[in-house]
Each structure stands twice: as C-alpha cells, then as structure tokens.
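Hi P.,

Sorry for the delay on this. The queue was packed all week, but I finally got your sequence through. Input first:
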Amino acid sequence: MGKVRKGLLFTLSMLLLGSSFLFLSASLSAYSFSLKNNAQVLNNFEKINSQFDGASYGMGEIFEHEALTITQVGNNVHFEEEISGFGKQNYTRDVMQFKQFIQSYGRVNVSIDDAEAGNPKMYLMPQNISIDHRPGRVLFSPQNYSGSEKSVEGYDILIKINHPTPTINWTNASEVSGSNESALYFHIGLQGSDGAVSDTVYLDRYAESELRLLNSESQSIVTVQIESPATLTLNYNVDMYLNAVVVLNNSIDYIELGQDAVEVEMGPDGTKRGAVIVFES
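Then the structure:
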C-alpha cells in the first residue's frame, strides 16, 4: 500500500513538474517573440527618425544657401536677402529636386510640403508670425491675437537697388503718436544709384496705410502696405537687396520652415510629421 502511494505521489510530482516546464517553455517563447517584436519596432522607429532627420537636414541646407540669412540682435529679427520679381527660382528648383530625390530613393515614404517650404514660408515661434515669400511679394503676418500681433513693435526696412533713387510717396498714412497703445513703429530706408531716402513714422497697427517708391517716371517700383493687425506687405517689381527687421518686444525661440513641412510614413509602423527648424535663438 505504501509503495502504491509513493508511486502515485511520484506520478503526480512528474505531472506537476512537466506542467511547470511547459508553462516555462511557453513563457520563454512568448518573451522571445516579444523581444523580437520590440526589436523590430525599435528598428522601424530608428528608420523613421533617420529619414526625417535626413530630409530636415537637406531642407535646412538648401534654405541656408539659397533662401536668405537670418540673424537676431536683441529681440529684433533680421531677414537679409537678394530678391527679384521672379521669386527665388534657384531655391524653389532645389527644393523640388530634393523632394523628387528623397521620394525616389528613400527607404520609406517621405514627403515635403513644397506649397509652404518651397516659397519659402517661415514662422517665428512662439509668437506665430508668418513670413511668406511669393514672386513679387513678401508678407509679414502676425496672427490676430494679442500674443502674436502685440508682440510686434514695428518694422525697419532697408532696400538697395541698382537704379536711380526713387521718391517716397505716402498714398495713405494712418499716423498716431508713439505713445498710442496701437502705435506701430515703421522705418524705411532706400539706397539707389544716386543717393538715399528714408522716412520714420508711427502708424496705427489696426488701420490701413500705404506708401509707394516712385521712379523718375512716377511709376511704382515698390509698394508697402500696413493692414490690421500689424501686417506688412511689400510688393515689388524690381531686383533688390532687402534687409527687413521685425522689431519685437520679446525674444523668439526658433523659426520653422513651413508647418509640418516634412512627413515620414511607414505604414502600420508609424508616421512622423514635423517642422524644419532654420533658426534657433
């Protein structure tokens, strides 16, 4: 009888031990699969980040060499560039070629929002002020809320042209005193082949103002418009050097090219979308 009990206990022990081994084996198998799966996820994540960083770097290099120069002095942000009535043709061409290249040879699906990045269109952050370039036009546009438009204290515009110096003609000037809470500082200086002209005024940031730079035949070659809220539009039909300064009452953190200009998509493994940072303070 004792031997029978011992046999039953031994058999039961073996069954329990076997079950434990089966459970352990299943657990190890599941853990091994989880590690492989996590490794694949990490590998895909690295691919997405690598492609995004490569596309962003390439766009930044094109911007730096073909678009314009950005500097910051205190709270003032300077945008220095050579522009023509045909727009930034070399820059736009290089952006389109780069876009075609990365879409053809990238390991994952990469796209560039050339509608904004190809102009180029930039955003001063966190103030959220856009600077949009189009053929024959540059637009500085704060958003219509206090954190954006009230951060703009004014604009300082310097233009140089290889033509006889034009005259300044205000077609409409909504002037206010410098102490007025809606005052927007505005200075323009223009250097031509036979001298320079300039003017400084305080304008109502919520009203319309317009000046024209007229050549010797009284034809407008540059038109500057101020509109609400503190928006400045510069229209031109002549090749020129432009140094436009946005005068702010607080410092920017960075400037981005387009909004979410680069997107990397890898099917079910994820998507990364973000800005191209072209300047950091």
